[in-house]
Amino acid sequence: MKKVNNSAIRRLPRYYRELKKWQKNKRLFASTRELSEILGVHETQIRKDLAITGHRGIPKKGHRIDTLLKAIEKFLRWDDDNSAFIVGVGNIGTALIKHKQYENSGLKIVAAFDSNPAKIGKSINSVEVLPMDKLGNLIERMHIHIGIITTPPHAAQKIANTMVKSGIMGIWNFTSEQIIVPENIILENVDLYYGLSVLSHRVSQKLKNK
Amino acid sequence: MKKVNNSAIRRLPRYYRELKKWQKNKRLFASTRELSEILGVHETQIRKDLAITGHRGIPKKGHRIDTLLKAIEKFLRWDDDNSAFIVGVGNIGTALIKHKQYENSGLKIVAAFDSNPAKIGKSINSVEVLPMDKLGNLIERMHIHIGIITTPPHAAQKIANTMVKSGIMGIWNFTSEQIIVPENIILENVDLYYGLSVLSHRVSQKLKNK
DNA sequence: TAGATTGTTAATCGATTAACAATC
DNA sequence: TAGATTGTTAATCGATTAACAATC
Protein backbone atom coordinates (compact mmCIF):
# COMPACT_ATOMS: atom_id res chain seq x y z
CA MET A 1 0.00 0.00 0.00
CA LYS A 2 1.65 3.16 -1.16
CA LYS A 3 1.30 5.93 1.37
CA VAL A 4 -0.78 8.97 0.53
CA ASN A 5 0.62 12.42 0.93
CA ASN A 6 -2.12 14.31 2.71
CA SER A 7 -0.30 17.62 2.60
CA ALA A 8 -0.21 17.41 -1.16
CA ILE A 9 -3.86 16.43 -1.36
CA ARG A 10 -4.81 19.46 0.68
CA ARG A 11 -2.90 21.76 -1.66
CA LEU A 12 -4.24 20.38 -4.92
CA PRO A 13 -7.58 22.24 -4.74
CA ARG A 14 -5.69 25.52 -4.44
CA TYR A 15 -3.80 24.84 -7.63
CA TYR A 16 -7.03 23.77 -9.22
CA ARG A 17 -8.83 26.98 -8.37
CA GLU A 18 -6.00 29.14 -9.64
CA LEU A 19 -5.72 27.12 -12.85
CA LYS A 20 -9.46 27.44 -13.43
CA LYS A 21 -9.03 31.21 -13.38
CA TRP A 22 -6.22 31.02 -15.91
CA GLN A 23 -8.31 28.80 -18.11
CA LYS A 24 -11.08 31.36 -18.09
CA ASN A 25 -8.51 33.83 -19.40
CA LYS A 26 -7.84 31.52 -22.33
CA ARG A 27 -4.40 30.46 -21.17
CA LEU A 28 -3.34 27.00 -22.33
CA PHE A 29 -0.18 26.28 -20.34
CA ALA A 30 0.91 26.81 -16.74
CA SER A 31 4.44 26.64 -15.42
CA THR A 32 5.08 25.73 -11.81
CA ARG A 33 7.19 28.87 -11.60
CA GLU A 34 4.20 31.14 -12.13
CA LEU A 35 1.97 29.13 -9.84
CA SER A 36 4.66 29.31 -7.22
CA GLU A 37 4.87 33.10 -7.40
CA ILE A 38 1.14 33.60 -7.09
CA LEU A 39 0.37 30.98 -4.48
CA GLY A 40 3.52 31.38 -2.43
CA VAL A 41 4.22 27.66 -2.54
CA HIS A 42 7.72 26.45 -3.41
CA GLU A 43 8.22 25.58 -7.06
CA THR A 44 9.59 22.11 -6.38
CA GLN A 45 6.76 21.48 -3.97
CA ILE A 46 4.22 22.16 -6.67
CA ARG A 47 6.03 19.83 -9.08
CA LYS A 48 5.98 17.04 -6.54
CA ASP A 49 2.35 17.68 -5.71
CA LEU A 50 1.30 17.63 -9.35
CA ALA A 51 3.32 14.47 -9.88
CA ILE A 52 0.97 12.49 -7.65
CA THR A 53 -1.84 13.07 -10.14
CA GLY A 54 0.23 11.39 -12.82
CA HIS A 55 0.06 14.41 -15.10
CA ARG A 56 3.24 15.22 -16.99
CA GLY A 57 4.38 18.69 -17.95
CA ILE A 58 6.25 19.59 -21.08
CA PRO A 59 9.76 21.01 -20.65
CA LYS A 60 9.95 24.63 -21.65
CA LYS A 61 6.17 25.02 -21.78
CA GLY A 62 4.77 23.77 -18.52
CA HIS A 63 1.56 21.84 -17.92
CA ARG A 64 -1.36 21.87 -20.32
CA ILE A 65 -4.05 23.44 -18.20
CA ASP A 66 -7.06 21.52 -19.49
CA THR A 67 -5.56 18.07 -19.07
CA LEU A 68 -4.03 19.03 -15.73
CA LEU A 69 -7.41 20.11 -14.40
CA LYS A 70 -8.89 16.80 -15.48
CA ALA A 71 -6.02 14.93 -13.84
CA ILE A 72 -6.60 16.71 -10.54
CA GLU A 73 -10.34 16.05 -10.71
CA LYS A 74 -9.67 12.43 -11.39
CA PHE A 75 -7.09 12.05 -8.66
CA LEU A 76 -9.34 13.70 -6.08
CA ARG A 77 -12.26 11.56 -7.31
CA TRP A 78 -14.43 14.57 -7.97
CA ASP A 79 -16.29 12.52 -10.51
CA ASP A 80 -17.14 9.89 -7.91
CA ASP A 81 -20.26 10.01 -5.86
CA ASN A 82 -19.48 12.53 -3.17
CA SER A 83 -23.04 13.12 -2.10
CA ALA A 84 -23.33 14.45 1.41
CA PHE A 85 -25.91 15.34 4.03
CA ILE A 86 -25.49 18.39 6.19
CA VAL A 87 -26.93 18.65 9.69
CA GLY A 88 -27.48 22.09 11.18
CA VAL A 89 -28.77 24.93 9.03
CA GLY A 90 -27.29 27.84 10.96
CA ASN A 91 -24.89 30.39 9.55
CA ILE A 92 -22.05 28.00 8.78
CA GLY A 93 -24.34 25.36 7.37
CA THR A 94 -26.10 27.87 5.16
CA ALA A 95 -22.76 29.23 3.96
CA LEU A 96 -21.61 25.77 2.92
CA ILE A 97 -24.85 25.03 1.09
CA LYS A 98 -24.75 28.34 -0.74
CA HIS A 99 -21.08 28.05 -1.69
CA LYS A 100 -21.44 24.58 -3.04
CA GLN A 101 -21.87 25.40 -6.67
CA TYR A 102 -19.16 27.95 -7.22
CA GLU A 103 -16.55 26.31 -5.10
CA ASN A 104 -15.09 23.55 -7.21
CA SER A 105 -14.79 20.99 -4.54
CA GLY A 106 -16.39 17.83 -5.78
CA LEU A 107 -18.93 17.89 -2.99
CA LYS A 108 -22.66 17.59 -3.56
CA ILE A 109 -24.86 18.47 -0.63
CA VAL A 110 -28.10 16.69 -1.40
CA ALA A 111 -30.14 17.38 1.72
CA ALA A 112 -30.02 19.35 4.96
CA PHE A 113 -31.40 18.55 8.40
CA ASP A 114 -32.35 20.74 11.31
CA SER A 115 -34.26 20.41 14.56
CA ASN A 116 -35.87 23.83 14.25
CA PRO A 117 -39.43 23.41 12.92
CA ALA A 118 -39.32 26.92 11.47
CA LYS A 119 -36.58 25.85 9.09
CA ILE A 120 -37.96 22.46 8.08
CA GLY A 121 -39.55 22.36 4.66
CA LYS A 122 -37.66 25.37 3.36
CA SER A 123 -35.06 25.16 0.64
CA ILE A 124 -31.67 26.80 0.32
CA ASN A 125 -30.32 26.73 -3.22
CA SER A 126 -32.76 23.91 -3.89
CA VAL A 127 -31.39 21.88 -0.99
CA GLU A 128 -34.36 20.94 1.13
CA VAL A 129 -34.30 21.15 4.92
CA LEU A 130 -35.67 17.96 6.49
CA PRO A 131 -36.49 17.03 10.07
CA MET A 132 -33.82 15.36 12.17
CA ASP A 133 -35.70 12.13 12.65
CA LYS A 134 -35.35 11.30 8.97
CA LEU A 135 -31.56 11.50 9.05
CA GLY A 136 -30.63 7.90 9.81
CA ASN A 137 -33.19 6.37 7.54
CA LEU A 138 -32.28 8.50 4.54
CA ILE A 139 -28.56 7.90 4.94
CA GLU A 140 -29.26 4.20 4.61
CA ARG A 141 -31.75 4.44 1.80
CA MET A 142 -29.77 6.91 -0.31
CA HIS A 143 -26.38 5.35 0.45
CA ILE A 144 -24.85 8.63 1.57
CA HIS A 145 -21.18 8.36 2.57
CA ILE A 146 -20.33 11.84 3.85
CA GLY A 147 -21.95 13.68 6.74
CA ILE A 148 -21.34 17.32 7.62
CA ILE A 149 -22.04 18.59 11.13
CA THR A 150 -22.66 22.31 11.56
CA THR A 151 -24.78 22.29 14.69
CA PRO A 152 -24.04 23.74 18.11
CA PRO A 153 -21.31 21.62 19.73
CA HIS A 154 -23.52 19.94 22.30
CA ALA A 155 -25.55 18.19 19.61
CA ALA A 156 -22.59 16.92 17.62
CA GLN A 157 -21.83 13.59 19.27
CA LYS A 158 -25.37 12.32 19.09
CA ILE A 159 -25.62 13.20 15.42
CA ALA A 160 -22.30 11.54 14.74
CA ASN A 161 -23.59 8.39 16.42
CA THR A 162 -26.67 8.33 14.20
CA MET A 163 -24.55 8.90 11.13
CA VAL A 164 -22.15 6.10 11.98
CA LYS A 165 -24.96 3.69 12.79
CA SER A 166 -26.60 4.41 9.44
CA GLY A 167 -23.49 3.76 7.39
CA ILE A 168 -21.74 7.11 6.93
CA MET A 169 -18.04 6.64 6.17
CA GLY A 170 -16.67 10.15 6.60
CA ILE A 171 -17.65 13.01 8.91
CA TRP A 172 -16.73 16.64 8.38
CA ASN A 173 -17.11 18.25 11.77
CA PHE A 174 -17.38 22.05 12.00
CA THR A 175 -18.23 22.12 15.70
CA SER A 176 -15.72 22.58 18.49
CA GLU A 177 -16.88 19.32 20.04
CA GLN A 178 -14.32 16.50 20.17
CA ILE A 179 -16.38 13.84 18.44
CA ILE A 180 -15.55 10.21 19.12
CA VAL A 181 -16.08 7.75 16.26
CA PRO A 182 -15.05 4.13 15.58
CA GLU A 183 -11.61 3.73 14.08
CA ASN A 184 -12.83 2.88 10.61
CA ILE A 185 -14.73 6.15 10.26
CA ILE A 186 -12.86 9.04 8.66
CA LEU A 187 -13.12 12.24 10.65
CA GLU A 188 -12.03 15.70 9.55
CA ASN A 189 -12.35 18.44 12.12
CA VAL A 190 -12.54 22.05 11.03
CA ASP A 191 -11.56 24.65 13.58
CA LEU A 192 -12.52 28.09 12.34
CA TYR A 193 -10.31 29.64 14.98
CA TYR A 194 -7.28 27.54 14.12
CA GLY A 195 -5.18 30.34 12.67
CA LEU A 196 -6.37 33.07 15.01
CA SER A 197 -3.99 32.36 17.84
CA VAL A 198 -0.99 32.67 15.56
CA LEU A 199 -2.34 35.86 14.05
CA SER A 200 -3.06 37.61 17.32
CA HIS A 201 0.14 36.35 18.89
CA ARG A 202 2.20 37.76 16.07
CA VAL A 203 0.33 41.05 16.07
CA SER A 204 0.87 41.43 19.81
CA GLN A 205 4.52 40.58 19.40
CA LYS A 206 4.85 43.25 16.79
CA LEU A 207 3.13 45.88 18.87
CA LYS A 208 5.44 45.16 21.75
CA ASN A 209 8.54 45.61 19.61
CA LYS A 210 7.51 48.99 18.35
CA MET B 1 15.36 36.26 18.56
CA LYS B 2 14.08 32.92 19.71
CA LYS B 3 11.95 31.26 17.10
CA VAL B 4 8.28 30.75 17.73
CA ASN B 5 6.67 27.37 17.35
CA ASN B 6 3.53 28.08 15.37
CA SER B 7 2.30 24.50 15.51
CA ALA B 8 2.31 24.68 19.27
CA ILE B 9 0.57 28.04 19.27
CA ARG B 10 -2.19 26.66 17.11
CA ARG B 11 -2.73 23.76 19.48
CA LEU B 12 -2.81 25.76 22.70
CA PRO B 13 -6.41 26.96 22.28
CA ARG B 14 -7.55 23.36 21.99
CA TYR B 15 -5.95 22.50 25.31
CA TYR B 16 -7.43 25.67 26.73
CA ARG B 17 -10.97 24.80 25.70
CA GLU B 18 -10.73 21.28 27.08
CA LEU B 19 -9.24 22.52 30.35
CA LYS B 20 -12.02 25.08 30.70
CA LYS B 21 -14.52 22.23 30.57
CA TRP B 22 -12.63 20.36 33.27
CA GLN B 23 -12.52 23.45 35.39
CA LYS B 24 -16.29 23.77 35.16
CA ASN B 25 -16.46 20.24 36.54
CA LYS B 26 -14.47 21.38 39.56
CA ARG B 27 -11.32 19.51 38.64
CA LEU B 28 -8.12 21.09 39.94
CA PHE B 29 -5.35 19.19 38.17
CA ALA B 30 -4.79 17.93 34.64
CA SER B 31 -2.22 15.41 33.52
CA THR B 32 -0.90 15.45 29.98
CA ARG B 33 -1.79 11.78 29.81
CA GLU B 34 -5.49 12.46 30.11
CA LEU B 35 -5.39 15.41 27.74
CA SER B 36 -3.55 13.22 25.28
CA GLU B 37 -6.22 10.53 25.39
CA ILE B 38 -9.08 12.92 24.83
CA LEU B 39 -7.51 15.19 22.25
CA GLY B 40 -5.57 12.55 20.38
CA VAL B 41 -2.35 14.54 20.64
CA HIS B 42 0.83 12.79 21.74
CA GLU B 43 1.59 13.12 25.43
CA THR B 44 5.11 14.42 24.92
CA GLN B 45 3.82 16.87 22.36
CA ILE B 46 1.45 18.36 24.89
CA ARG B 47 4.24 18.66 27.45
CA LYS B 48 6.42 20.50 24.99
CA ASP B 49 3.57 22.74 23.94
CA LEU B 50 2.68 23.63 27.50
CA ALA B 51 6.34 24.27 28.23
CA ILE B 52 6.36 27.29 25.92
CA THR B 53 3.90 29.03 28.22
CA GLY B 54 6.37 28.70 31.06
CA HIS B 55 3.89 26.86 33.25
CA ARG B 56 5.32 24.01 35.30
CA GLY B 57 3.47 20.89 36.24
CA ILE B 58 3.86 18.97 39.44
CA PRO B 59 5.22 15.42 39.19
CA LYS B 60 2.62 12.85 40.11
CA LYS B 61 -0.22 15.38 40.02
CA GLY B 62 -0.06 17.17 36.71
CA HIS B 63 -0.75 20.84 35.96
CA ARG B 64 -2.87 23.04 38.19
CA ILE B 65 -5.72 23.92 35.87
CA ASP B 66 -6.40 27.45 37.04
CA THR B 67 -2.82 28.66 36.78
CA LEU B 68 -2.30 26.80 33.53
CA LEU B 69 -5.29 28.52 31.97
CA LYS B 70 -3.90 31.87 33.06
CA ALA B 71 -0.51 30.98 31.63
CA ILE B 72 -2.01 30.12 28.25
CA GLU B 73 -4.04 33.33 28.21
CA LYS B 74 -0.95 35.30 29.03
CA PHE B 75 1.22 33.58 26.46
CA LEU B 76 -1.35 34.05 23.71
CA ARG B 77 -1.82 37.69 24.84
CA TRP B 78 -5.53 37.30 25.27
CA ASP B 79 -5.40 40.11 27.77
CA ASP B 80 -3.88 42.42 25.18
CA ASP B 81 -5.94 44.61 22.95
CA ASN B 82 -7.14 42.24 20.26
CA SER B 83 -9.89 44.49 18.98
CA ALA B 84 -10.87 43.70 15.43
CA PHE B 85 -13.11 44.95 12.63
CA ILE B 86 -14.96 42.53 10.43
CA VAL B 87 -15.91 43.33 6.85
CA GLY B 88 -18.73 41.38 5.25
CA VAL B 89 -21.82 40.47 7.24
CA GLY B 90 -22.87 37.37 5.33
CA ASN B 91 -23.22 33.91 6.81
CA ILE B 92 -19.60 33.44 7.80
CA GLY B 93 -19.26 36.97 9.15
CA THR B 94 -22.43 36.62 11.19
CA ALA B 95 -21.25 33.28 12.54
CA LEU B 96 -17.98 34.79 13.74
CA ILE B 97 -19.73 37.72 15.39
CA LYS B 98 -22.21 35.47 17.13
CA HIS B 99 -19.60 32.99 18.31
CA LYS B 100 -17.37 35.62 19.71
CA GLN B 101 -18.45 35.48 23.28
CA TYR B 102 -18.54 31.78 23.96
CA GLU B 103 -15.45 30.86 22.03
CA ASN B 104 -12.54 31.71 24.25
CA SER B 105 -10.30 33.16 21.64
CA GLY B 106 -9.10 36.47 22.91
CA LEU B 107 -10.71 38.24 19.97
CA LYS B 108 -13.02 41.21 20.33
CA ILE B 109 -14.99 42.19 17.26
CA VAL B 110 -15.90 45.80 17.90
CA ALA B 111 -17.58 46.74 14.64
CA ALA B 112 -18.78 45.26 11.37
CA PHE B 113 -18.91 46.72 7.87
CA ASP B 114 -20.99 45.88 4.84
CA SER B 115 -21.84 47.42 1.51
CA ASN B 116 -25.46 46.31 1.64
CA PRO B 117 -27.62 49.26 2.77
CA ALA B 118 -30.22 46.86 4.13
CA LYS B 119 -27.73 45.61 6.69
CA ILE B 120 -26.21 48.93 7.71
CA GLY B 121 -27.41 50.28 11.02
CA LYS B 122 -28.44 46.89 12.34
CA SER B 123 -26.69 45.19 15.22
CA ILE B 124 -25.63 41.59 15.71
CA ASN B 125 -24.91 40.73 19.30
CA SER B 126 -24.51 44.45 19.91
CA VAL B 127 -21.90 44.73 17.16
CA GLU B 128 -23.07 47.50 14.89
CA VAL B 129 -22.97 47.20 11.10
CA LEU B 130 -21.44 50.33 9.54
CA PRO B 131 -21.10 51.46 5.93
CA MET B 132 -17.94 50.55 4.03
CA ASP B 133 -16.78 54.11 3.53
CA LYS B 134 -16.15 54.51 7.24
CA LEU B 135 -13.76 51.58 7.39
CA GLY B 136 -10.41 53.28 6.77
CA ASN B 137 -11.15 56.25 8.92
CA LEU B 138 -12.30 54.25 11.91
CA ILE B 139 -9.33 51.88 11.77
CA GLU B 140 -7.08 54.90 12.14
CA ARG B 141 -9.09 56.64 14.80
CA MET B 142 -9.70 53.58 16.94
CA HIS B 143 -6.23 52.10 16.42
CA ILE B 144 -7.56 48.74 15.32
CA HIS B 145 -4.86 46.19 14.55
CA ILE B 146 -6.77 43.17 13.24
CA GLY B 147 -9.06 43.06 10.21
CA ILE B 148 -11.30 40.14 9.27
CA ILE B 149 -12.50 39.72 5.70
CA THR B 150 -15.65 37.66 5.15
CA THR B 151 -16.88 39.16 1.89
CA PRO B 152 -17.25 37.53 -1.52
CA PRO B 153 -13.75 36.90 -2.92
CA HIS B 154 -13.81 39.61 -5.58
CA ALA B 155 -14.06 42.36 -2.96
CA ALA B 156 -11.26 41.07 -0.76
CA GLN B 157 -8.18 42.69 -2.29
CA LYS B 158 -9.62 46.18 -2.28
CA ILE B 159 -10.66 45.87 1.34
CA ALA B 160 -7.24 44.55 2.27
CA ASN B 161 -5.68 47.57 0.58
CA THR B 162 -7.84 49.94 2.62
CA MET B 163 -7.01 48.08 5.80
CA VAL B 164 -3.28 48.17 5.16
CA LYS B 165 -3.32 51.84 4.25
CA SER B 166 -5.16 52.65 7.46
CA GLY B 167 -2.73 50.86 9.72
CA ILE B 168 -4.05 47.32 10.19
CA MET B 169 -1.28 44.92 11.18
CA GLY B 170 -2.92 41.54 10.74
CA ILE B 171 -5.55 40.29 8.32
CA TRP B 172 -7.66 37.18 8.81
CA ASN B 173 -8.90 36.26 5.35
CA PHE B 174 -11.88 33.92 5.01
CA THR B 175 -12.29 34.39 1.26
CA SER B 176 -10.79 32.15 -1.37
CA GLU B 177 -9.04 35.16 -2.92
CA GLN B 178 -5.24 35.16 -2.82
CA ILE B 179 -4.77 38.52 -1.14
CA ILE B 180 -1.47 40.33 -1.68
CA VAL B 181 -0.18 42.44 1.19
CA PRO B 182 3.13 44.11 2.04
CA GLU B 183 5.65 41.90 3.74
CA ASN B 184 5.27 43.47 7.15
CA ILE B 185 1.55 42.69 7.30
CA ILE B 186 0.58 39.42 8.94
CA LEU B 187 -1.85 37.40 6.85
CA GLU B 188 -3.75 34.30 7.92
CA ASN B 189 -5.83 32.61 5.27
CA VAL B 190 -8.70 30.34 6.25
CA ASP B 191 -9.80 27.81 3.71
CA LEU B 192 -13.07 26.25 4.79
CA TYR B 193 -12.59 23.50 2.25
CA TYR B 194 -9.05 22.70 3.35
CA GLY B 195 -9.80 19.29 4.83
CA LEU B 196 -12.49 18.29 2.37
CA SER B 197 -10.19 16.93 -0.33
CA VAL B 198 -8.54 14.57 2.13
CA LEU B 199 -11.89 13.45 3.48
CA SER B 200 -13.49 12.73 0.13
CA HIS B 201 -10.32 11.18 -1.23
CA ARG B 202 -10.13 8.78 1.67
CA VAL B 203 -13.82 7.93 1.49
CA SER B 204 -13.53 7.18 -2.23
CA GLN B 205 -10.46 5.06 -1.59
CA LYS B 206 -12.38 3.10 0.96
CA LEU B 207 -15.36 2.53 -1.27
CA LYS B 208 -13.11 1.24 -3.99
CA ASN B 209 -11.47 -1.29 -1.69
CA LYS B 210 -14.74 -2.78 -0.59
C1' DT C 1 20.89 24.37 -31.37
C1' DA C 2 20.34 26.76 -26.79
C1' DG C 3 17.87 27.31 -22.95
C1' DA C 4 13.69 27.05 -20.18
C1' DT C 5 11.26 24.04 -17.59
C1' DT C 6 10.53 19.58 -16.36
C1' DG C 7 10.87 15.35 -12.92
C1' DT C 8 13.70 13.19 -9.47
C1' DT C 9 17.35 12.28 -6.23
C1' DA C 10 19.82 14.03 -2.35
C1' DA C 11 20.21 17.32 1.51
C1' DT C 12 18.05 20.02 4.88
C1' DC C 13 14.87 21.37 8.00
C1' DG C 14 11.38 21.13 11.44
C1' DA C 15 8.14 18.72 13.94
C1' DT C 16 6.92 14.47 16.32
C1' DT C 17 7.95 10.63 19.22
C1' DA C 18 10.92 7.75 22.26
C1' DA C 19 13.74 7.32 26.15
C1' DC C 20 14.90 8.48 30.62
C1' DA C 21 16.59 10.97 34.65
C1' DA C 22 14.47 14.17 38.03
C1' DT C 23 11.12 14.84 41.64
C1' DC C 24 6.90 15.55 44.38
C1' DT D 1 9.52 5.16 50.45
C1' DA D 2 7.67 3.83 45.77
C1' DG D 3 5.80 5.21 41.78
C1' DA D 4 3.39 8.39 38.79
C1' DT D 5 4.17 12.18 36.17
C1' DT D 6 7.02 15.70 35.00
C1' DG D 7 10.60 18.19 31.70
C1' DT D 8 14.28 17.48 28.47
C1' DT D 9 17.62 15.30 25.48
C1' DA D 10 18.20 12.22 21.71
C1' DA D 11 16.25 9.60 17.80
C1' DT D 12 13.00 9.31 14.24
C1' DC D 13 10.05 10.68 10.91
C1' DG D 14 8.08 13.32 7.27
C1' DA D 15 7.83 17.29 4.67
C1' DT D 16 10.26 20.95 2.32
C1' DT D 17 13.95 22.72 -0.43
C1' DA D 18 18.26 22.40 -3.21
C1' DA D 19 20.70 20.49 -6.92
C1' DC D 20 20.87 18.75 -11.35
C1' DA D 21 20.42 15.71 -15.33
C1' DA D 22 16.81 15.02 -18.92
C1' DT D 23 14.31 16.96 -22.72
C1' DC D 24 11.07 19.53 -25.73
Can you give keywords for this protein?
two-stranded antiparallel sheet; 210 residues; DNA-binding; globular; alpha/beta; homodimer; 7-stranded mixed sheet
Topology:
Two copies of one chain form a homodimer.
Chain A: H1 6-24, E1 29-30, H2 32-39, H3 43-51, E2 63-64, H4 65-75, E3 83-87, H5 91-99, E4 108-114, E5 123-124, E6 127-131, H6 135-142, E7 146-149, H7 156-166, E8 170-173, E9 186-189, H8 196-208
Parallel strand pairs in A: 3-4, 3-7, 4-6, 7-8, 8-9
Antiparallel strand pairs in A: 1-2, 5-6
The structure holds a DNA duplex (24 and 24 nucleotides).
Tell how many strands the DSSP assignment of chain A holds: 9
Distance between the termini of chain A: 53 Å
How does the overall form of chain A come out from the CA principal axes?
Answer: globular
Main sheet of chain A?
7 strands, mixed
Taking pLDDT < 50 over at least 5 consecutive residues as the criterion, the unreliable ranges of chain A are none
Strand-and-helix sequence of chain A, N→C?
HEHHEHEHEEEHEHEEH
